[in-house]
Design a protein that fits this description.
Elements lengths: L4 H68 L5 H19 L5 H29 L8 H80 L13 H50 L8 H31 L8 E3 L1 H11 L1 H7 L2 E6 L9 E3 L1 H18 L5 E9 L2 E8 L20 H4 L9 H11 L3 E6 L5 E8 L1
Parallel strand pairs: 2-4
Antiparallel strand pairs: 1-3, 4-5, 5-7, 6-7
Helix pairs in contact: 1-2, 1-4, 2-3, 3-4, 4-5, 5-6, 6-11, 7-9, 9-11
Amino acid sequence: MRLNIFSRLLFSYFAVIIFLGMINAYSVWALHRLNVEVNVIFQQDRNGLDLNERLAHSLESQRLSMRRFIVARDVAFLRPIIDGQKEFEAYLARMSSSVDTPEKKDALARIISGYDNYRTLINTQIEGIRTDSGPGDLKKPDRIAGDISDDLKALKGMYERDTGLRMAMLQQTAARSQKISIILFATAAAFMAIGLFLNARGITKPLHLLREKTREISRGVFEGDLSIASPREVSELAGELNRMCEKLKEVDSMKSGFIAAMSHELRTPLASIKQGISLLRDRIAGPMPDKQKRIFTILSEETNRLIEIVNTILELSKMEAGMMPFALRYDDLPALVRRVVDEMTPLIEAKKVRVTMQFGGQEDTLPPVRLDRERILQAIRNLVGNAVKFAPENGLISIDVYRHNGSLEFSIHDTGPGIPEESLETIFEKFHQSPVRSSGPIKGTGLGLAFVKHIITAHGGSVWAKSEPGKGATFIFTLPI
């Protein structure tokens, strides 16, 4: 089932939202991890280092107060020692919650054990001094205090090392998160771009085909063969267009059949009228004045013109129906051009038009081409005849035949009134004429160029016109070599 345009757009926007949501979710997760690491550094490691500094300071303060007590034998120095012991034990209790590795726990256990021994010795010394039962020796307590200081320094190094490792890990995590975020964004952008391109292409390509089909219809091609994979609305439109083409084809076929039938029926009475006029003009029925003879001469010429139009319509009908036979053989195109120009020499001289012909370059021998001699002669006669008709008196007609892109190209240019740009396509259709050329004293039927187009197309070539109003017109056709 094909999705309609609304569903495609909705799906595209939903996919974009999903991609952006995934990127945002990863960014939130990465920030959470960074936040956890930062909290460990600032709440655990920094707290452990701070307690380590306080423990070292408290121990040193206790040692200093003990020395003063021994020297002065003043009980006033006992208060700082007792307060320092309570403070040291409180710091040890707080630090127990900040150690997170077995190594740190072992170091803290040594500190606690050493301080228990140190406190016991200090309290014994204090009691001995107060009862005058001992001299107050500090060598052993100082040695134990030194060991405790060394353990505190070692524990501090552990915290600094772990802080450094966590900072390095934090930097690596941030860099990795940044890289992954960039990759995710680039991947999402690529998928979104591809998806949006395919989605837009799935809509614009069928519309482009519909536009091309409408152009074909405007040129009179009514083949209902449009089959495209597209959204439902466009597919339904293509189906309606095909049905319209079928109807137009039926109407065009009816029109062509009617014209062909009428043309065929007109040939017999026209031939009878022509014969009767010829007999009257030749005075078979008796003498007649010269004025009546001139009238019969005009009637005879117009009858011939009508018969020519009828024959052209019939031939066009045969070509459109694919029933016109073509006898193709290799022939010399320049020779056919010379023959047509020779045939039209009286008309050219009467119009006082100068004709120039050029066939290839000086060293370029044009090859023969496969063509139907009589049909190509008809096409060239139409083009040369048009050029002579519309070229002004004492004007110029240039005819060129040359090799171009694997084809033989025929070009004829006149210095007549030219053709408007909007008429360059339609002049090759039946009964269509350029407004500039049909408004003058020389009028045609609008069948000659249509006839030329059918002949050249049947030979596998193409025909077109170039012109600027007031600067003449150029008609070109190609024949494959």
